[in-house]
Amino acid sequence: MLSGNHSKTDTGKWMAVVNPNAGGRKGEKDWPGISRLLDEAGIGYDHVLTGHRGHAIELTENAIAAGFRQFIVVGGDGTLNELVNGVFRQKTCDPKEILIAMVPVGTGNDWGRMYGFPKKYRKAVNLIRKGRHFTQDVGHIRYHDEKGEQERYFVNVSGMGYDALVAEKTNRMKEKGKGGTLSYLLNIFTGLFQYRYVHFIITLDGSEVFNGRVLSMNLGICRYNGGGLMQVPF
User: Fold this and answer.
1) How large is the average pLDDT for residues 107-136?
2) Are strands 207-214 and 216-220 parallel, antiparallel or unpaired?
């Protein structure tokens, strides 16, 4: 869990952000059982279903504006990433007021792997019931694309260059109900025929530290991506 203090506007209830497409449609299939576990644990919650890529960002912003300060991600790393971006893009409250929990149903679940989150739904719900939590850093990246300057927040690993191409190809497969470690490994090899080197200008604390062509680069707060590949060990 990521945690902070709660404001007086807190509804006191959790908002479960459910991705039906997570884990090859496991989110859709398993949500009724997960919701029963939440009910049995006495956890008060509302829920919303994501409908497309980026939707969890919007749903999170709206929920915070409505007074929710506690969120349960029912999905995978992509759903978690969108929820975190919703938290940091909204202007209603300080992000430190937000508490995030997770019931992992994705194909990779790399963020949960870092902290040893249980894969069994009942055990994950029990962690939420116990209220055990910790505080984690959040990464913030600014970059440019065809639309101009963009920004993104992350709590696991941010891949650039070749890794970003592989992630994009894998995400497209996930949207079609496919994905996971095998898909990621497949795209590592097929992407070699598509990739072109990218010119990077990297600054650190305001000073330029690199200017040149890059094959691939990862920035990691946690260790794993791609369904258990340890690309940023520490």
Assistant:
1) 92
2) unpaired
* Token code pair at residue 119: 């894969």
What is the C-alpha to C-alpha distance for residues 139 and 155, in angstroms, rounded to an integer? Answer: 6
CA 51 to chain centre: 16
Euclidean distance between CA atoms 159 and 173, whole angstroms: 18
Q: pLDDT tens for residues 161-182?
A: 888 888 888 778 777 766 666 7
Alpha helix segments (H runs only) across the chain: 22-40, 55-65, 77-89, 110-115, 121-130, 162-175, 181-190
Q: How far apart are CA 148 and CA 43, in angstroms?
A: 43
- Classify residue 118 by its DSSP letter: -
Query: Model's pTM, two decimal places?
Result: 0.85
Residue 144 φ/ψ, nearest 5 degrees: -120, 140
